[in-house]
Amino acid sequence: LNMVSGPAASGDEGPYWSRVKVFFKMVDPRNALLGQSDVDWARQVLSGRAEHPPSVVERAQDIVQCVVHPDTGLPVSPFFLRLSCIVPANMTLDCLMITASTPWQTAGAQALNQCYNAAHYWANRNHTNDEPPVRVAASFTAATASSVWAALRLQRAASAMQGAAAVVLRRSAPFLAVAAADVLNLGIMRSNEWARGIAVKRRDGTEVGRSRRAGAMAVASCVAARVMAAAPVLLSSSFALEAMERAGPFRPGAALASLRVPAALAVLGSAIVCAVPLTFALFRREATVSVSWLEPEFRSLDDGNGLPVSQVWYHKGL
């Protein structure tokens, strides 16, 4: 593992289940409070200046992967925007969304969720291009407006229906609203990546230019991973809540009614811990792409020794 990640590190990501294991470590909330001193220790261990047991080297690699942004080489900050905070943050926000019962509660929960998402996407984006504050504000505004509008419209439509169809639409509304907003939030927040391009590199880490097509692939894969991660989390917890509300002990006024929200939080936490690694691992953080898929200027690259380059690397972001 390169201490600041990079193209060469892509080979270390391994097959799908190896990447799943890495993401399980990255969502561990215990890694949220790791600081600069921990990163400095990890870099010293990985520098190779001294021999260390395999368990120590593995822990150092985990710290770098969990804390350090591959583009900047700096810890992702503030700490609550790291992937390791996604479990407690999304447990709270998702619970607010699935338990909202009035239009104002729905709007407030969706707005809070998109505020956190905008900050999280910004902190974990590809850092090839600077994102001006106006773009961050635009992505937040568009995503919040779309999620609130979608959630309220879907709930209104569900209230006009009856039977199972009404239940399915009402309980699916939080996910559908979040999915629509994620496309706008990430698409606008990271529009410089597909409009101006992102850095692409040879295997040795040498930057060979910027590609708009690689930028579009990076944003599209992040949108896909986010939507796929949200589906099992919001749908399973929302329908589990519906089942609890229909079950005798959890009905309003029943003996276990007060445990309805804690039970929903338990379902949410379990779903997030499982869904995020399984979906995020579908796409490599340090992705490779054939030069034949990129702009014409990349198709005649060589490795510095006159041999043709068939693929390049780029940082996808989260």
Name a few traits of the molecule.
318 residues, two-stranded antiparallel sheet, 4 strands
Q: Can you offer a commentary on this structure?
A:
- This protein has 318 residues and is mostly helical.
- It is 58% helix and 6% strand.
- It contains 10 helices and 4 strands.
List the helices and strands and how they pair.
Layout: H1 16-26, H2 36-46, H3 54-67, H4 86-99, H5 103-123, H6 133-159, H7 163-189, H8 191-195, E1 198-201, E2 207-211, H9 212-246, H10 260-280, E3 286-290, E4 311-315
Antiparallel strand pairs: 1-2, 3-4
DSSP strand tally = 4
Regarding quaternary structure, what we see is single chain
Instruction: Kindly state the percentage of residues in helix.
Output: 55-70%
Residue windows where pLDDT falls under 50 for at least 5 positions: 1-11
Written as H for each helix and E for each strand, in order along the chain, the element string is HHHHHHHHEEHHEE
Radius of gyration: 22 Å
The secondary structure category is mainly alpha
Globular, elongated, flat, extended or rod-shaped: what is the shape? Answer: globular
What characterizes the major β-sheet?
2 strands, antiparallel
Strand line-up across the major sheet: 1-2
The total of helices stands at 10
* Overall residue-averaged pLDDT value: 83
Estimate what percentage of residues fall within beta strands. 5-15%
Distance between the termini: 19 Å
